[in-house]
Design a protein that fits this description.
mainly alpha, Hypothetical protein af1432, 11 helices, 0% strand
């Protein structure tokens, strides 16, 4: 794997996938959009730029947290999976539904994923962990690589967006974060 990380800060596919959800995401759109591009960048680095995997990776990340906004629900994995699967069928993208569902379902897995489609799902998992921890967990990337991505793609306080959801939907931040831990994190 190369030391240089290729920044992906725009994709026509990502922008078209976001279009029907942009109004639902509302003011949080810049923060979520930035998160999506950062995790795509990390994941594609782990996949060594595998362009065959890129359309799936981009789709997974547009949908991976979408249930927060569409359902206003802290247990957002299943609604996010369902939106991705429904759109996969509706628009005829042709993605393997098991891979699409599993990549979303396991993206918060604490320990390495072992199972079908491990290469892609593990890259997705690692990419999300890096950004979700604001680079405190780097999954083998250097500080310089993470900083290059963070410098290129603004954060727009994505962590605060998540904490607002925890407080608003969980009664308070503590109980909301505990609910996320129980319902979204996988061991």
């Amino acid at each position: 794997m190369s030391d240089e990380i290729k920044i992906i800060d725009h994709s026509d596919r990502v922008e078209s996938l976001f279009a029907p959800y942009r109004d639902i995401i509302g003011d949080d759109y810049p923060a979520y959009r930035g998160h999506v591009y950062r995790v795509i960048t990390y994941t594609m680095h782990f996949l060594e730029g595998d362009e065959e995997a890129r359309p799936l990776v981009e789709t997974v990340f547009v949908y991976h947290d979408i249930g927060l906004w569409t359902e206003n629900e802290l247990a957002y994995l299943e609604p996010s999976e369902e939106h991705a699967l429904a759109d996969n069928d509706k628009f005829g993208w042709g993605f393997d539904p098991h891979l699409l569902r599993d990549a979303i379902h396991w993206h918060h897995k604490v320990f390495p994923y072992r199972g079908p489609n491990q290469r892609v799902i593990e890259a997705v998992r690692k990419g999300d962990w890096i950004d979700a921890t604001d680079g405190k967990i780097r999954k083998g990337l250097s500080k310089a690589q993470v900083k290059a991505v963070q410098d290129a793609i603004p954060n727009y306080d994505f962590g605060n967006v998540l904490q607002r959801f925890a407080g608003d939907l969980g009664g308070n931040k503590l109980s909301g974060n505990l609910r996320v831990l129980r319902r979204v994190f996988k061991w």
